[in-house]
Structures are given as C-alpha cells and as structure tokens.
C-alpha cells in the first residue's frame, strides 16, 4: 500500500467522547477525512446511513470480507464491524490523513499489517466512574449493556501499551487541542 497520508487509528471505550473529538478534528483540521465503517449492528435512533456507518446484513458483510474489501474487521458486542479498504487507500494516495475510530482488535490488525505511517491514539475517560455516568447520560444502552461496555473498557485498557499516544478526555477543549497537536506533529514525523 502506498501511504502518502497518515493513518490515525483512534480507539476508546464507548462513552469516552471519541465521536465528538473526531468530528471536531475533521471539521477543524484541513486534509483529514474519517472512514465510515461497515457494520451488522442495528441502526440507533438518530444514526444516518453513510454518515455514522454503512448498515448491512451479516450475509453482505461476510461476502465483502471474503472479497478482501476490509483492511481490518472485528466482532464487537456480537456485531461485526469493518473498515472499507477502497476509501482508506484512495484517500491516503491522495495525500489525505485518514481517521479510523475502531476497537483494539482492529487496531492490532492494522499494527501488524501496515504499521508504517500509522499513528495509534487511545482516548481515555478520566475514570470508570465518569465513563459509567457518560454512558447513563447517553441513554442509548440498558443497564446490562452499560455493564457490558464497562467490562469491555477494562479489557481494552490492557492494550494501551501498544498505542503511541494517550489523550485523557476530562475537559473536551483540552483533549481536542492535544489530539490536534498529535495530528499536526505526526505530519512532520519521518518514517
Ligand atoms: P458502536 O456500536 O458503539 O458504534 O461501536 C462499538 C465499537 O466498535 C467501538 O469501540 C468502535 O470504535 C468499534 N468500531 C466501529 N467501527 C469499527 C471498525 O470498522 N472496525 C473495528 N475493529 N471496530 C470498529
């Protein structure tokens, strides 16, 4: 793969604020685009096809996987998620920086297969207590799902050591400044 732009792989436990931070990044830093993943998960209220995800059936997902259409994929909370290869490769070739917001399993696949030119960033909540409060406030998950997400978050944190940067999202403005600084500095880094 000819990597001209940088691939920013961003992972975070659900509720750590990565969606807002990444939206800000795309809006405010020119030359950065975000990949939209393909998923078999049900659409949540307010989510838009092609903006939040491309929602497909398990059969369609399997076919695309077989056709090597994903640069990585993972099963998260009983659903499949994959990053479309075409979008990522064409944008990197156009010298754009591409942001992937994916789970740790997917990040580890990218690390193994195309580490060069990739920057791995982990966004953390200030504490698990904060994380639970944010998930409760979001009102998209049941208590059982919140507990499941918190357990998953603890497990995901064990992968922190494989990431280049950690950003603690206590104050959104500060976290955004840090994220932007990482992106801009990474553009100057020699690989
Ligand atoms: P959610 O269903 O809450 O939107 O996402 C659940 C988890 O799946 C999050 O950690 C999110 O980052 C991750 N995820 C979303 N898209 C992808 C993808 O294409 N690949 C991988 N590996 N994980 C993804």
List the helices and strands and how they pair.
Blueprint: E1 7-11, H1 18-28, E2 32-34, E3 38-39, E4 54-55, H2 58-66, E5 70-76, E6 79-84, H3 85-93, E7 97-101, H4 104-114, E8 118-124, H5 128-138, H6 143-156, E9 165-168, H7 172-188
Parallel strand pairs: 1-7, 1-8, 2-7, 3-4, 8-9
Antiparallel strand pairs: 3-6, 5-6
Helix pairs in contact: 5-6
Bound molecules: guanosine-5'-monophosphate.
The site of guanosine-5'-monophosphate has 15 residues, from β5, β6 and α4.
Give the terminus-to-terminus CA distance. Answer: 15 Å
Tally the helices: what do you get?
A: 7
The overall strand count is 9
- Number of discrete domains: 1
Could you tell me the CATH topology label.
Rossmann fold
Helix percent band? 40-55%
Low-pLDDT sequence parts: none
Heterogens = guanosine-5'-monophosphate
Largest sheet: 5 strands, parallel
How does the helix and strand content classify structurally? Answer: alpha/beta
Tell me the name of the CATH homologous superfamily: P-loop containing nucleotide triphosphate hydrolases
Coarse morphology:
globular
CATH architecture: 3-Layer(aba) Sandwich
> What Rg is obtained from the alpha carbons, in whole angstroms?
16 Å
Could you name the CATH class? Answer: Alpha Beta
What is the mean predicted local confidence, pLDDT? 93
Question: Order of strands side by side in the largest beta sheet?
Answer: 2-7-1-8-9
SSE string, helices as H and strands as E: EHEEEHEEHEHEHHEH
Task: Tell me the β content.
Answer: 15-25%
